[in-house]
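Worked Example 4.2. Consider the chain below.
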Amino acid sequence: MKVTIRNRLGLHARAAGKLRNLAEQFQSQITVVSGHTTVNAKSVLGLMALEASQGTQLMLRAEGPDSEQALQALADLIEQRFGESE
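Applying the procedure from the previous section yields the following structure tokens:
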């Protein structure tokens, strides 16, 4: 599932933490892809290593029993700018 980082600060530490915390709620293995880099969505350091700024397109992938729910929940969080106003 393709998503675009919309918040002004990009995938910074707090946003990465929110994404990781949400990913941890699912049994599925979830990865985030940016360019040629693939990271585990359950790793804050991995997510921050993507250096995803505003406008960056990411690919979310999940495999497991709740993969569809996981992808939708993560996409919604990103679409809602991680709960940030900008």
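The longest helix spans residues 67-79. The chain has one domain: 2-83. Compare this with Example 4.1 before moving on.
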